[in-house]
Design brief:
It contains nine helices and 14 strands. By secondary structure, the protein is of the alpha/beta class. The strands form three sheets. Strands 1-2-5-4-3-6-7-14-13 form a nine-stranded mixed beta sheet, with helices on both faces. Bound molecules: N,N,N-trimethyl-histidine (AVJ).
């Protein structure tokens, strides 16, 4: 698609094609016809799901968001000084407050030149582009409409040392094999002297982790169940949402949280858009999310498998969460 010039400093390109709408249908067909039913977590985030996630981030039990923000505030100047970053690639939006912490540090250091938002929503890319070009004097914005799991190869060449944050612990949603593959694809975006800034939740007392996914206000349960509303609306399914319950537990061996939806009685579901009938036995579960927790060893291992090396791991005093700086391995 031809670049759309909004003004002298903003350029937006789209890489989405006509088939990119199909992923929900494909994922549901794939996931619900398996012996162990599964739905990928990316479909949680419709308008209501995004609202519920924002509410999760404010919960007393959900320490991750506020802890990561504090780590960033504490170390942003150091990150910028050590990387000399002149441009920042933002993968997926909704982290605007965290991005600002980094962009502010780059501006204060006098290095900030370019901001590259990447998001599947053209509206979001345009909105954030226009907002930031107003807010940061002289900033140039190259917006990319696309899926960061598929379209990173279309990123423009760096104009100088690049910083690529991937925050929020989202990397934990990838199962181990695709996690390493995705890290490798991030590594390829870094260019000469670029750095990845990776947010990861850390392994700790399982009770603390489990409480974060079984909050007393029941917001996480609503968030989890919301994916069934998404299927009902988007695919003409007839899930009886009240006949499923939220389950979340820490798998101590795999060191990840699993969220599931458990059928409270046997049931039969029809999904019109797929012309599919799905049966659930009583207490049968759908896995809806894994959220890996990291030790320094796991982090180093994943980075190494992706051709990356750890430069510095910043944590909070309680070591709940980590924000790690990594670069392409030097051998
Ligand atoms: C946004 C993927 C980091 O795994 O903790 C929050 C999503 N799921 N509560 C996480 C989530 C349930 C969250 N991530």
């Amino acid at each position: 698609m031809a670049p759309r010039i909004l003004n002298g400093q903003v350029e937006v390109r789209s890489h989405l094609g006509p088939n990119d709408e199909r992923t929900l249908a494909d994922d549901v067909l794939d996931g619900l016809t398996r012996p162990l039913k599964e739905l990928p977590p990316k479909h949680f985030y419709d308008a209501r799901g995004s609202e519920l996630f924002d509410a999760i981030c404010e919960l007393p039990e959900y320490y991750q968001t506020r802890t990561e923000r504090r780590i960033l505030e504490t170390h942003a100047d150091d990150v910028v000084a050590r990387t000399g970053a002149v441009e920042l690639v933002e993968l997926g939006s909704g982290s605007a407050t965290k991005t600002r912490v980094l962009l502010d540090a780059m501006r204060d250091a006098g290095t900030l030149a370019r901001y590259i938002p990447v998001d599947v929503s053209a509206t979001t890319v345009h909105a954030v582009a226009e907002l930031f070009v107003e807010e940061y004097e002289g900033l140039s914005v190259y917006g990319m409409v696309g899926d960061f799991e598929r379209h990173l190869k279309h990123l423009p060449a760096p104009v100088g040392p690049r910083l690529v944050p991937f925050l929020g612990g989202t990397i934990g949603n990838f199962p181990p094999g695709s996690r390493r593959r995705f890290l490798r694809s991030l590594g390829k975006t870094l260019g000469d002297g670029g750095h990845l800034l990776l947010g990861t939740d850390l392994v700790k007392d399982p009770h603390v982790i489990e409480a974060a996914y079984n909050d007393s206000a029941g917001v996480t349960a609503q968030f989890n169940l919301n994916v069934l509303h998404v299927l009902n609306r988007e695919l003409g399914a007839d899930f009886d949402v009240d006949a499923f319950e939220h389950v979340a537990f820490f798998d101590r061996e795999r060191e990840w949280i699993e969220m599931r939806l458990r059928a409270t009685k046997p049931q039969h579901v029809r999904i019109d858009a797929l012309d599919l009938e799905v049966d659930f036995a009583g207490r049968e579960e759908i896995r809806t999310e894994i959220s890996a927790k990291f030790t320094p060893e796991r982090l180093r291992g994943d980075l190494a498998a992706a051709g990356l090396e750890l430069v510095e791991m910043f944590t909070d005093p309680e070591e709940l969460f980590a924000v790690s700086l990594a670069r392409v391995a030097s051998d």
